[in-house]
TrEMBL record:
Keywords: Transferase. PROSITE patterns: RHODANESE_3 (PS50206). It comes from the Bacteria. InterPro entries: GlpE_sulfurtransferase, Rhodanese-like_dom, Rhodanese-like_dom_sf. Pfam families: Rhodanese. CDD domains: RHOD. Gene3D superfamilies: Rhodanese-like domain. One of its GO terms (molecular function) is transferase activity. It comes from Streptomyces regalis. The keyword Transferase applies. This is Sulfurtransferase. The keyword Transferase applies. Residues 9-100 form the Rhodanese domain.
Length: 109
């Protein structure tokens, strides 16, 4: 499974967050697309509409397990996708901003 380190992500990289709604509401990366893993297959079209053409999809969850599953599925669909190693826990730990739905500082649930 292709992976990328949080520290290697650029601010304009396309980020797909597959955590559940309560996790997203507590805190997420600003600008990420949110499609919970539990709804992913049904909402797959939202990803294909939102992702920039020919851009890599960086998939993130809390620690990397769920995002690895989604990234593998996307690769099987012919999409350039990678798992973000360590997920939002590492994202927050290295000081990347985490915001809630109001744009205020959030936290990783």
């Amino acid at each position: 499974m292709p992976t990328v380190e949080v520290t290697d992500l650029k601010d304009d990289d396309f980020l797909l967050d597959v955590r559940e709604d309560d996790e997203w509401q507590a805190g997420h990366a600003e600008g990420a697309l949110h499609i919970p893993i539990s709804e992913f297959v049904a909402r797959y079209g939202e990803l294909t509409e939102a992702a920039p053409q020919d851009a890599r999809v960086h998939v993130i969850c809390r620690s990397g397990g769920r995002s690895a599953q989604v990234a593998m599925y996307l690769v099987q669909q012919g999409i350039d996708a990678v798992n973000v190693d360590g997920g939002m826990q590492v994202w927050a730990a290295v000081g990347r901003p985490v915001v809630n739905d109001e744009g205020r500082p959030g936290f990783v649930l």
